[in-house]
UniProtKB/TrEMBL annotation:
GO terms for cellular component: plasma membrane. Heme c 3 binds at residues 311, 314-315. PROSITE patterns: CYTC, PROKAR_LIPOPROTEIN. This is Alcohol dehydrogenase. Residues 1-21 form the signal peptide. Binds 3 heme c groups covalently per subunit. It comes from the Bacteria. Heme c 2 binds at residues 188, 191-192. Residues 18-131, 173-281, 298-388 form the Cytochrome c domain. Its cofactor is heme c. InterPro entries: Cyt_c-like_dom, Cyt_c-like_dom_sf, Cyt_C_IC, Cytochrome_c-type_DH, Membr-bd_ADH_cyt_c. Heme c 1 binds at residues 42, 45-46. Gene3D superfamilies: Cytochrome c-like domain. It comes from Chimaeribacter coloradensis.
Length: 409
């Protein structure tokens, strides 16, 4: 199976075309479609229960209300069993479902439009092999007026640029494959690109980081301070494959992505994505790093004491952490981010890293919600963000308070 999959995904630049010749229902095409479903992490939104794959039911919280992932099994009453391939292809490439229903951007068709028709055909072939599961899902749970789909016509006009990915002739096949994954099925921008007031991507700030469900999806541009500019290609591959490298350990939604998707990618695709991210040419909007706070600043003095008492045993006194167990804080991109949401969250609520076969330990971060005040957390994070070659804006107690209450709810 692995040999056929490698052959299938490697026969063309975009992993498309050659396998389709074997026929829509052939083993090769179905297996290719299975891999593409994993590549796109379709389970993240469409599998709420492990024993009901792709039967939908995953809640998706948006700034406008709740949407729920649809049932995409071949069930004729509650799934896509009565859909044709043309209807599926239109949903992927245009965001328009069966009967001309406009889909919300939570279904990332703005990225999936880059996927080739042949890859969509393989995905479709795979979905047809799933066990039909009768599962009623009310996908649109938005309040009025956001539940009115007619408004999506205007949303698409403002935020949607239709069209398959077109390879850059001045770039290598590997770079183009990485771009195709990141911009297409991988839909990395859905989390990592900031959004405008109506939920569309700020394309001029592509992959510069955004807050998603009270987590900060970090900057993954080649910026050397806040992005992945100092990571090597191998460190990027390690992170996607195992959920850990010397700079970071995946937690929250990214740990889920690694578990369900990227750890299953081929080595060739991991390398292609790493090559693209390192050489994407995307720029950070930040002009220059701020000056770090002085060590004698009252917030730094208080934060240093809290860090020594509560944090240094795991993250070490010099912020280097312990590779594979506790994240490095010194000179770390997420620590230097303009937005400290993820750091505040893990201090308040704790976190458990993802576990993979290559990194099975899944270390955890305890919750300090009951033990540290808003001011204490603000001080220790301000200290971390301005020590060991880090330089970032201080965290205020109101920043902590604003996140503490939603997390408790």
């Amino acid at each position: 199976m692995k040999t056929l999959l490698s052959l299938c995904t490697g026969l063309s630049l975009l992993g498309a075309g050659a396998c389709h010749a074997a026929g829509d229902g052939s083993f090769e095409t179905v297996e290719k479609g299975r891999y593409l479903a994993v590549l796109g992490d379709c389970a993240a939104c469409h599998t709420a229960k492990a024993d009901q794959p792709y039967a939908g039911g995953v809640p998706i919280e948006t700034p406008f209300g709740r949407l729920v992932g649809a049932n995409i099994t071949p069930d004729r009453e509650t799934g896509i069993g009565t859909w044709t391939f043309e209807e599926f292809d239109r949903a992927m490439s245009e965001g328009i479902g069966k009967g001309g229903v406009h889909l919300y951007g939570a279904m990332p068709f703005t990225a999936f439009t880059r996927v080739t028709r042949d890859d969509n055909r393989a995905l479709w072939a795979y979905l047809q092999t799933l066990q039909p599961i009768h599962s009623e899902v009310e996908t649109n749970q938005l309040p009025f007026p956001f539940n009115q789909r007619a408004s999506l016509i205007g949303w698409n006009w403002l935020n949607f640029d239709k069209g398959e990915y077109r390879p850059r002739l001045d770039k290598s096949a590997e770079w183009n494959r990485g771009a195709y994954i990141v911009e297409g099925l991988g839909h990395c921008g859905t989390c990592h690109t900031p959004k405008n007031l109506i939920g569309g991507d700020k394309t001029d700030r592509a992959l510069q980081g955004a807050v998603v469900q009270e987590w900060m999806a970090p900057d993954i541009t080649p910026d050397p301070r806040t992005g992945i500019g100092r990571w090597t290609e191998q460190e990027l591959m390690d992170y996607l494959k195992t959920g850990a490298n010397r700079y970071d350990i995946a937690s929250g939604p990214m740990a889920e992505e690694v578990d369900h998707s990227s750890r299953h990618w081929t080595e060739a695709d991991l390398k292609a994505v790493a090559v693209y991210l390192k050489q994407s040419g995307l720029k950070s909007s930040r002009e220059k790093a701020p000056a770090p706070l002085k060590p004698d600043d009252a917030r730094m003095v208080a934060g240093r004491a809290i860090y020594a008492d509560r944090c240094s045993a795991c993250h070490t006194p010099d912020g280097q952490g312990i590779p594979g167990l506790f994240p490095r804080l010194a000179d770390a991109p997420l620590v230097n981010s303009d937005n400290a949401t993820s750091m505040i969250r893990v201090v308040l609520a704790g976190s458990r890293a993802g576990a993979t076969g290559a990194a099975p330990t899944a270390p955890s971060m305890p919750s300090f919600d009951r033990y540290l005040s808003d001011q204490d957390i603000a001080n220790v994070l301000t200290y971390v963000r301005n020590s060991w070659n880090n330089a970032a804006a201080p965290v205020g107690p109101d920043d902590v308070k604003d996140l503490r209450e939603p997390l408790r709810r």
